[in-house]
Design brief:
By secondary structure, this protein is α+β, with helices and mostly antiparallel strands. It has three helices and five strands; from the N terminus they run E-H-E-H-H-E-E-E.
């Protein structure tokens, strides 16, 4: 059985501060929701800890559908992170 891999996409401020627009990630054991993924990424430290912090406003989509932290993740998913849109 192959490892559960997902694609992560980072937009706007996140792309700049994290220095990456895209990465492939093998889901570690126990990382099976958006919230646990965000905690896993924050544990990288530095800009990751700042951008993925629990209190930081951040939107996310799984397979191009906006989701909340309890959204389940599975192999092959595309997860996009982006700052909330403001203005009018």
């Amino acid at each position: 059985m192959s490892a559960a891999s997902i694609t992560l996409l980072y937009f706007a401020r996140l792309r700049e501060s994290l220095g990456s627009a895209r990465e492939e990630l093998v889901l570690p054991a126990g990382v099976n929701t958006l919230a646990t993924l965000r905690n896993h990424l924050a544990a990288r430290g530095g800009a990751w800890a700042e951008e993925m912090a629990t209190g930081r406003k951040l939107r996310a989509a799984v397979n191009q559908t906006l989701v909340q932290g309890d959204a389940p993740l599975k192999a092959g998913d595309e997860v996009a992170f982006f700052p909330p849109v403001t203005g009018g």
